[in-house]
Write a structure and sequence with these properties.
The chain is built from 14 helices and eight strands. It is α/β, with parallel strands linked by helices. It starts with 9 loop residues before the first helix and ends with a helix. Bound molecules: zinc ion. Zinc ion binds next to strand 1.
Length: 302
């Protein structure tokens, strides 16, 4: 290959310096240009995953574990409707070892779709939670409860919702809650020391300033970021507003696939790759906290 050398004359050099003197401050002030845009390449903890009944046939255990491994996911919160999916993952000891994926089992409150809108007042759900806790899984004791949904905030005051929060606090179980900001406050009123992963960190786009207010008020609250509106811009890069939130609260967020439908399983690799892209806009140590350390720390993983 032939190389071409360009001679820069003294006059041109002066011109270059002038242009640089003009451009450098602009580039440094511009958040996108200043971003480290190399995708995050470390491990991911998938802290919001479902292995529901519809997924079991098209996505057998060996396949989903392979997909996690390929995506660089090294640990998952496993929960499923009904809990059989979580148990199937927990029982796949040989495959789990081969994949290197660690599983943290959670109790789902839903035996079927009807339970989504009634669990918070149904005593048979509380009984199921107690039975599951007593039985445990092949991968060890359950470590949490959820994901549960509260489509109306005031249902956080349902009798079973209150008892489950108190049980979680007493038994050191982590709660995975798909709720709005008002319900977060109501759940903490039942159990001020409970640990809550806030699924989607406000799926309807509660302002980032309100998210920060709750993080400050409740030191055991962790935001999970699937479907969070406003997180990225059109190119999949981190928005300046959320970058600021992560820089000021690096210990308070985690990631999740939220494989609530099979379409999410089909996109599993893309979802994780998307996270890696915007995490690349953060200092590596902070990206690693959000991708791995914050969730791993909740469950005592190294
Ligand atoms: Zn979910």
């Amino acid at each position: 290959m032939e190389t071409v050398r360009t001679r820069i004359l003294p006059g041109q050099l002066k011109g270059c310096r002038t242009i640089l003197a003009f451009l450098v401050p602009i580039l440094m002030a511009c958040p996108v240009a200043a971003q480290n845009t190399r995708p995050y390449s470390g491990p991911i903890f998938d802290a919001h995953l479902h292995y529901n009944i519809e997924a079991v046939q098209p996505y057998p255990v060996t396949k989903v574990l392979g997909m996690m491994k390929d995506a660089g996911v090294a640990a998952i919160v496993a929960n499923s409707r009904p809990n059989d999916g979580t148990k199937a993952l927990a029982e796949s000891k040989g495959e789990l070892t081969k994949s290197g994926v660690q599983i943290i089992p959670f109790i789902r409150l839903y035996r079927n779709r009807d339970d989504y809108t009634n669990w918070f007042r149904d005593p048979t759900i509380y009984q199921m939670v107690e039975n599951e806790l007593a039985a445990g899984t092949a991968a060890g004791a359950y470590r949490g409860v959820g994901e549960f949904h509260l489509y109306e905030s005031q249902n956080a005051n349902g009798p079973v919702a209150k008892k489950i929060m108190q049980l979680a606090e007493a038994r050191n179980l982590v709660i995975l809650a798909h709720v709005d900001d008002a319900a977060i406050e109501m759940l903490y009123a039942h159990a001020p020391k409970a640990r809550i992963i806030w699924a989607h960190t406000g799926i309807s786009g509660v302002p980032a300033s309100r998210v920060v207010e709750l993080l400050v008020k409740y030191p055991t609250l962790i935001g999970e970021l699937s479907y969070r509106p406003g997180l990225t811009d059109g190119d999949g890069l981190l928005s300046p507003e959320w970058k600021q939130v992560f820089l000021s609260h690096p210990d308070r967020f985690c990631l999740g696939s939220d494989t609530w439908t099979n379409g999410r399983w089909a996109a599993y690799g893309e979802i994780m790759a998307g996270y890696r892209v915007w995490l690349g806009g953060l200092p590596t140590a902070i990206a690693r906290k959000i991708a791995w350390e914050n969730a791993a720390g909740l469950f005592g993983l190294p």
